[in-house]
Write a structure and sequence with these properties.
- The structure holds two protein chains of two kinds.
- Chain A is mainly alpha-helical.
- Chain A has helices at 10-33, 40-69, 81-111, 132-167, and strands at residues 116-118, 122-124.
- Chain A is built from four helices and two strands; from the N terminus they run αααββα.
- Chain A has a two-stranded antiparallel sheet.
- In chain A, helix 3 (81-111) packs antiparallel against helix 4.
- Chain A is elongated and about 55 Å long.
- By secondary structure, chain B is mainly beta.
- Chain B has one domain: Lipid/polyisoprenoid-binding, YceI-like (Lipocalin), CATH 2.40.128.
- Helix content of chain B is 12%, strand content 50%.
- Chain B has two helices and eleven strands, in the order αββββββαβββββ.
- Chain B has helices at residues 2-17, 79-84; strands at residues 21-23, 30-37, 40-46, 49-55, 64-70, 74-75, 98-110, 113-122, 125-136, 140-150, 170-180.
- In chain B, a hairpin with a 2-residue loop joins strand 2 (30-37) and strand 3.
- Chain B is elongated.
- The chains are: A mainly alpha, B mainly beta.
C-alpha cells in the first residue's frame, strides 16, 4: 500500500482531536480560574475543570488501549533516524503527561480537602488525606507538569506543521479528520 | 456466661458511678460541619467556642446546655473562603460575632442517647432545632451528635451565594460537647 494512503483509523483520529480540544480548553480554563476571586462561578468552573481532567484521563486510557490493537501508520521513510527517535520520545512524554497532569490535579484536590466528584455524581476516592502543606506542593507539581505539557504540545504541533509545510509529507494529513489529504499548502 | 455476669455487674455499678456533669471542657469538645459545594462535601470546623452544660444522668430531663461559637474562628476547609464568610453576605461577623445554641428540653430515648431540643441563633435569626446526642460518661462526659440546618433559614450566604445549586442549602453540623464530672 502506498504510504500516502496510510492513515490513522477513524477512532484514533477522533480520540486524538477530542483529547486535544479538551486539553487545550482545560489548560486555558485552569489559567483563567485560579486568579478569580471567590464566587459561585469560581466554584462551578473548578468543578468543570476537574470533570474535564478526569475525562482526559479516561479518554487517554481508551486511546492507549485502542492503540494497542491498532498500530499507528509508520513514520515516513524520508524521516532521518534522529527525528524518529525524537518523535518517539516526544509521544511517550505526551502520553505520560496526559496521565500525570490529571493525576496530579486529583491528588492536589484530595490534599486540599476538596474531593473530586465526577460530573457531581461519581465520587472519586481520595488517595491522600487532607494535608495543606502537601496540597500546596502538589499545586506546584500540577502547575509545573502543565507548563511541561504546554511546551511539548507546542513542539508536537510545530513538528506536525513542519512536516506538512516544509517536508511536505503526510504526517499531519494522516491524522486529519477529512479523508482527502491536501498535499499542497495554498 | 462469664461475660454476661460481668456485664450485669457493670450495669449494676453504673448508677453508683453516675455523677453530675457541669461546666465545659473545651479541649474535649469540637464543633465541625460539612458543607456541600457542587455536590462535593467539604469538612470545616470552628476553633473557638465556649459552653456550659448541666447534666445528671439520673435526672436527664433537668439537663441543659448552652453553647456559644465564635464565628470568626471558622476553618471552612477552603482557605480563601475563611475571610469571605466573615462578610455581611455570610455571617456578618462584625454585627453578629457568635452563634448561640440554647437547649430547651432533654429527653432520654435509650441506649445512652438523648433527644435535645433547643434554639439556634445565627446572624440575629433564631430557629428551633432538634438533635440526637449520644452521651459518653467518664471523668469528662461528652455529648456527640449531629443535625442539619438550612443556611437560608439564617441568611448565611446571601446575594450571589443564595444559589443553592453551587453551595447547598443544607449544612450538617457535627459536635462533641464535653463537661467534667463532679
Amino acid at each position: 500500500m502506498p504510504q500516502t494512503y496510510s492513515r490513522y483509523d477513524p477512532v484514533a483520529i477522533a480520540l486524538h482531536w477530542l483529547v486535544a480540544i479538551v486539553i487545550v480548553c482545560n489548560f486555558a480554563l485552569g489559567v483563567y480560574m485560579h486568579e478569580l476571586p471567590l464566587s459561585p462561578w469560581k466554584l462551578k468552573i473548578y468543578s468543570w475543570h476537574k470533570w474535564a481532567g478526569v475525562s482526559v484521563f479516561l479518554l487517554v486510557a481508551l486511546r492507549l488501549a485502542w492503540r494497542g490493537f491498532h498500530r499507528p501508520p509508520p513514520m515516513p521513510d524520508s524521516m532521518p533516524a534522529w527525528q524518529r527517535e525524537l518523535a518517539h520520545h516526544g509521544h511517550h512524554l505526551l502520553y505520560l503527561l496526559m496521565f500525570a497532569v490529571p493525576i496530579s490535579g486529583w491528588l492536589m484536590s484530595s490534599a486540599l480537602g476538596v474531593q473530586t466528584v465526577y460530573f457531581g455524581v461519581l465520587p472519586i476516592p481520595d488517595l491522600l488525606d487532607k494535608d495543606k502543606a502537601l496540597g500546596d506542593v502538589l499545586k506546584q507539581v500540577h502547575e509545573a507538569l502543565n507548563l511541561g505539557m504546554a511546551a511539548i504540545v507546542l513542539g508536537h504541533a510545530g513538528a506536525a506543521l513542519k512536516h506538512h509545510y516544509m517536508d511536505r509529507d503526510d504526517v499531519l494529513t494522516r491524522m486529519l479528520p477529512w479523508s482527502k489529504p491536501p498535499r499542497n499548502p495554498q | 456466661m462469664k461475660r454476661s455476669i460481668i456485664s450485669c455487674l457493670l450495669a449494676l455499678s453504673l448508677p453508683a458511678m453516675a455523677s453530675e456533669y457541669s461546666g465545659f471542657n473545651a479541649d474535649a469538645s469540637r464543633v465541625s460541619f460539612v458543607s456541600t459545594q457542587m455536590n462535593v462535601p467539604v469538612e470545616g470546623r470552628f476553633e473557638r467556642f465556649s459552653g456550659n452544660i448541666r447534666f445528671d444522668p439520673d435526672a436527664p430531663t433537668s439537663g441543659s446546655a448552652r453553647l456559644e461559637v465564635e464565628l470568626a474562628s471558622i476553618d471552612t476547609g477552603l482557605e480563601e473562603a475563611d475571610e469571605e464568610v466573615a462578610s455581611a453576605e455570610w455571617f456578618d461577623i462584625a454585627r453578629h460575632p457568635n452563634a448561640v445554641f440554647e437547649s430547651s428540653a432533654v429527653e432520654p430515648i435509650g441506649n445512652q442517647t438523648y433527644r435535645i431540643n433547643g434554639t439556634l441563633t445565627i446572624k440575629g435569626k433564631t430557629h428551633e432545632i432538634a438533635t440526637e446526642a449520644r452521651f459518653e460518661p467518664g471523668a469528662v462526659g461528652a455529648f456527640s451528635g449531629s443535625f442539619k440546618l438550612k443556611r437560608s433559614d439564617y441568611a448565611i450566604g446571601e446575594g450571589m451565594w443564595s444559589d443553592t445549586s453551587v453551595v447547598a442549602d443544607e449544612v450538617e453540623i457535627r459536635y462533641r460537647i464535653a463537661a467534667p464530672a463532679h
